Amino acid sequence: MRVGTCFTDDVGARAAALMGQELVSFAINGDAGSTYPAGTVCTEACTASPGDIVISHMNRPGGGTAPGYARKVPALKARGYKFRTLSQVIGATTSPPTSWVTIEYGSQGAEAVGVQRVLHLTADGIFGPITQAAVKAYQGSHHSVPDGIVGPLTAHTMGLA
């Protein structure tokens, strides 16, 4: 993964999958690496929809991030918004079992059938290009890195694990 751009290539995604991990990304760059002034942080971060991941740098004193959030958070909380760190969400909503076998392009079997059924595909048990494309689309719509690999977290969000 290239941290500066949050780009992950297929090698990085495969390495994470082999370790039983999945990659997640963000939907909104709330502060452009702590370079936005407070007003822009307010505008950018407040475009989030439910479930979006907003990346921001609260650990940069003197930047506009903390003042930008300080302006908007009380009003958003009053409107019912809830704020969580990524570790709170993943820890609270995912506990992927170690029994899930990570599958990807070329895999065959019952796990592939389960994925295909969730994605409303022909359930032939062969994880081919159509299944891979559908998995990537599913991952992208669920704010996960669309790598086309069904590891424990993707399987969990699909209701398979």
TrEMBL record:
Transmembrane segments: none annotated. Pfam families: PG_binding_1. Residues 121-155 form the Peptidoglycan binding-like domain. InterPro entries: Glyco_hydro/deAcase_b/a-brl, Peptidoglycan-bd-like, PGBD-like_sf, PGBDSf. Gene3D superfamilies: PGBD-like superfamily/PGBD. GO terms for biological process: carbohydrate metabolic process. SUPFAM superfamilies: Glycoside hydrolase/deacetylase, PGBD-like. This is Peptidoglycan binding-like domain-containing protein.
